[in-house]
Each structure stands twice: as structure tokens, then as C-alpha cells.
Amino acid sequence: MQVKRQWESAVEPEHHEVFNRLLEDTVVQRFLAWDKKLRVSDKYLLSMVIAYFSRAGLFSWQYQRIHFFLALYLANDMEEDNQAPKQAIFSFLYGKSRVQLPMFHKLRFQLIRSMRWKTWVSRDECEEIQTYDPEHWAWGRDRTLIP
């Protein structure tokens, strides 16, 4: 007989607060508005951002705009087979310039390391994250509803 392991989320209210604070950032808002087809930032990828914030172990005041984009890039790296969504993040942030890419990847590596390499987020965990505030507008970003 196989026993199903109980899973418990380590996401705290402060991680949701950090996420909400970063969603108020004008650059993040422009990015989310720019991603009209939700190829880079649907509700599950955004849920993964909160999961990564909880795993990284930073104090809530330490999270900056770049952390949002690093976590979103990592979520796309984990879930999407296509390179285009990740390249879209770079294009939005840096335009045609590729000068900042090595630093972005260095910071991404540091984020992964701070999470102790735990980058996989289950669909159940994403859905649990969304139940913290089920009416939040970000959870309406459902890719399956776009024609």
C-alpha cells in the first residue's frame, strides 16, 4: 500500500503582500498589460512567483522589481517548452540590448540557489496559493479563456 504524502504550503501572508506590492509597480503593470495573450504571465505562472518568493527566504522588504521578473522567468523556464516567452521577458526589460543578460542569469542562479534548487511547483500548490485571495484580479489571467 502506498501512502500519499501530505503536502503543506510554506507560503505565508507576507509573500502574498510582497507579490501584491510588486504588482503595483508601474513597470510590472506595463509588462502584464503588454502580455495580452497571457503567454508569459498567466495565473499559474504568477502563482509560481509567490511560491518562489516563499522558498527564497528573503525578507519582504528585500524583494524588488527584478525579483518578480527573475521568478517569472524561472516559472516560464520550468513550465514552457518554448523559448519565446522567456525571450519576451528580456525584450520587454532590455529591448534589443543584450548587455544585461549575463547579470540577469547570475541573479537567476542566485535565486535558484537561495531556494535550495526547489524549482518545481505543483498545480495543487498553485491553486492553493490562489485560494488565499480567490477574488484577486491576477487569478483571472486564465490562458484557456482567451480565444
Automatic annotation (TrEMBL):
Keywords noted in UniProt: Membrane, Transmembrane, Transmembrane helix
Keyword Transmembrane tagged: yes
UniProt GO MF annotations: protein kinase binding
Transmembrane segments: 44-63
Signal peptide: none
Keyword Transferase: no
Pfam families: Spy1 (PF11357)
Record-stated family: Belongs to the Speedy/Ringo family.
Record's protein name: Speedy protein E4-like
